[in-house]
Amino acid sequence: MIILITGGVRSGKSKFAESLLKDKEDVVYIATARICDHEMEERIKAHRESRPTYWKTIETTYHLKNAIKEENYYLLDCLTNLISNIMYDYTRDLECLNMEIQKKVEDIIISEINQLILKIREKDSNLIIVTNEVGFGIVPDNPIGRMFRDIQGKVNQWVAQLSDQVYMVICGIPIRLK
To answer: What is the pTM of this model?
Structure first.
């Protein structure tokens, strides 16, 4: 079973995702955020402390499929951080961004997620993916912001099509879309 949970920032997506697994002990939490400053360090610390101590945590951006082992339940939180990290890794030294670069970044992200989903399906395990809905916001005023928004939107659509269930969380209230 693949479940996608989307919504705005601080909408309660992660809390809802974790609640779906509250009675499970064999959970692997695939955390994609990176510590880049003190504020992110505090956020990550709070996330770690909010999870059951018996859940296994793997912090990574790449080779997500390697997180799949013996457990039956996996929670990827979140796709938005994953996209940000991969996009940053592949564009940080570039002076100019174009559609060719955007396509390359999209392909890398889709490959990572596709390999993860294939391994989940092959093992007949369960995966919950948390992501942000970026389509309700303003159009970014810079090329990198617009590229990020476009990649996030396309990847969200692709993952939603592959998912068995899709939820949107608004003000802490989950709404099933699929």
So the answer is: 0.93
CA-to-CA distance for 178 and 168, rounded, in angstroms?
10
CA–CA gap between residue 140 and residue 117 (Å, rounded): 31
Exactly one of 15, 34, 47, 149 is catalytic; name it: 47
Q: Does domain 8-176 have CATH number 3.40.50.300?
A: yes
**Residue 60 · residue 67 · CB < 8 Å:** yes
Q: Which residues, 6+ apart, have CB-to-CB distance to 58 below 8 Å?
A: 28, 29, 30, 31, 67
CB 85 within 8 A of CB 22: no
Q: Which amino acid is at 141?
A: D
**How many other C-beta atoms can be found within 10 angstroms of the C-beta atom of residue 12?**
17
Q: Please give the Cα distance from 117 to 163 (Å, whole number).
A: 9
Q: pLDDT, tens digit, for every residue of 108-163?
A: 999 999 999 999 999 999 999 999 999 888 888 888 889 999 999 999 999 999 99
Distance of CA 173 to the CA centre of its chain: 19
Four-residue CA torsion sign, 108, 56, 4, 50: negative
Token pair 């969200």: residue: 156
Instruction: Classify residue 75 by its DSSP letter.
Output: E
Concerning whether 63 is annotated as a catalytic residue, the answer is no
Nearest-5° Cα angle at 63, 85 to 36: 30
